[in-house]
């Protein structure tokens, strides 16, 4: 299918638990076990990673491996931007969620004058900075990078000059400055966050569809509302972290959280969102088969991936017919 390009990113530098680099291979095993030809239907490219530095001493306690993550984000950004140049839909399969900062940067690099909306389906808000992080793990900073957010009002760390330099640098990948506005961010199922993140979410009144509201309205209605909230956006990026699923479905991820989506809800939600022609990119992250001896997480994720891709392919075919 020439309209969809699979971008494989095995970097796990931003995670606190090792193993997310194996998530894409786990998806491929799930694909084979399901008797599907999914990974032979689409062109794919693998982005080089620097996971070998995990064997070296981390020099940045409040932004672990940020020097290598900077290089990874630049490579992801250029790969995504190039995919748009070829008029293809970038479908990103990544290790940890810090990689999403590179995806967003690539979208903006390709479309600097377009207004970008982001739908973040995740258990975590990922809006920490090196000034506020409790762990130093950069998969909790991807949206802060995209929003150019330091949140110094909630600062708990003083940063050394090198960390400041690299933090400024990661925020400049793709285009300098914010890649999106706070009004153009919608959370779905975020339910695990620290006080500094809560401060930002409340300060900017960022919409978060939590469990009770989601269950009351259902996936289709939530998708419609989320898309309507981004009605003034030219482009929309949908990021799906598998820990948005309830922990009984998502044991094979580094940070499972209770009271989340079912697999069927996730399939319907992603399918509905991706029917919107403004959705220009979809990303799936944080599958960790080392935490899941039965590969159940990858099997569940593959079901969601197939459902999401069907919407993309059907939509792209319709666009081609009308063109």
UniProtKB/TrEMBL annotation:
Cofactors that this protein relies on: Mn(2+)
SUPFAM superfamilies: Arginase/deacetylase (SSF52768)
CDD domains: Arginase
Membrane-spanning ranges: none
GO molecular function: arginase activity; manganese ion binding
GO biological process, one term: arginine metabolic process
InterPro entries documented for this protein: Arginase, Ureohydrolase, Ureohydrolase_dom_sf
One Pfam family here: Arginase
Keywords, alphabetical: Arginine metabolism, Hydrolase, Manganese, Metal-binding
EC top class, as a word: hydrolase
Top-level taxon of the source organism: Bacteria
EC number: 3.5.3.1
Stretches assigned to coiled coil: none
Known pathway: Nitrogen metabolism; urea cycle; L-ornithine and urea from L-arginine: step 1/1
GO cellular component terms given for this protein: cytosol
Membership in a protein family: Belongs to the arginase family.
Record-given protein name: Arginase
Organism of this sequence: Adhaeribacter soli
Lineage per the UniProt record: Bacteria, Pseudomonadati, Bacteroidota, Cytophagia, Cytophagales
